């Protein structure tokens, strides 16, 4: 087997194994937002193909008859492999990123649906195209599992667009890990939250570390509001 000299190391390693790069490493080349940092090489090997191993090999094999181009499988196949390899949350985050960036276009849903088992069809069907980050995808997915539905990307007069509105008056905002605006963004967020409060909204704001690493804190904060009906407007009694 031969490979051109300028192939990335992961693609070259997959080719040396007799397959093509897939799963999270392949999706990273497409620029998708990924929840987990999967390192190493994930190789798609045809069902009857032979896996060539090297000394100290820790590569992950995906037995799948997937087409390949440039040493990598198509994004739709890599997404299907990610669901099987990493689970539903990683899958939803990557899928919504692919839809948002146009890496996977709407007709690709049907192709992806055909590649995943029936119990995962709802994940494909419900994936949205408007998630600005994987944090939004993850938060919405986790709340949906709790039976909580959200309005996404809502425009509020005087405030602008917010990530989510729960019920009538609870705004949920998530701040990405790549936010480098520092104090200036903090000031803008405080102004937005104050204006929203003047319009009768309450705001809960979470950052990357909270959503990814301290989810129980996030969940408790949201459920605490919901259990006391603080996400709903109540008639004013003068």
TrEMBL record:
Pfam families: DUF559. Gene3D superfamilies: VSR Endonuclease. Signal peptide: none annotated. Residues 129-225 form the DUF559 domain. This is DUF559 domain-containing protein. It comes from Agromyces marinus.
């Amino acid at each position: 087997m031969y490979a051109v000299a300028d192939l990335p190391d992961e693609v070259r390693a997959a080719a040396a194994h007799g397959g093509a790069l897939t799963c999270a490493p392949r999706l990273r080349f497409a620029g998708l937002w990924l929840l987990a940092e999967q390192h190493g090489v994930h190789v798609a090997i045809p069902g009857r193909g032979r896996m060539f191993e090297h000394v100290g090999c820790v590569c992950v094999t995906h037995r799948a008859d997937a087409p390949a181009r440039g040493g990598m499988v198509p994004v739709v196949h890599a997404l299907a492999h990610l669901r099987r390899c990493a689970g539903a949350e990683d899958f939803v985050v990557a899928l919504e990123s692919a839809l948002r960036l146009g890496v996977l276009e709407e007709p690709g849903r049907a192709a992806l649906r055909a590649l995943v088992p029936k119990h995962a069809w709802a994940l494909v069907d419900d994936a949205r195209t408007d998630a600005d980050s994987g944090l939004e995808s993850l938060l919405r997915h986790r709340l949906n599992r709790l039976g909580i539905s959200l309005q996404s990307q809502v425009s509020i007069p005087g405030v602008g667009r917010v990530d989510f509105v729960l019920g009538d008056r609870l705004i949920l905002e998530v701040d990405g890990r790549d936010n480098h605006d520092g104090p200036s963004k903090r000031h803008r967020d405080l102004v937005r939250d104050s204006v929203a409060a003047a319009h009768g909204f309450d705001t809960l704001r979470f950052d990357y570390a909270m959503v990814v690493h301290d989810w129980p804190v996030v969940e408790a904060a949201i459920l605490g509001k919901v259990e006391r009906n603080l996400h709903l407007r109540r008639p004013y009694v003068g």
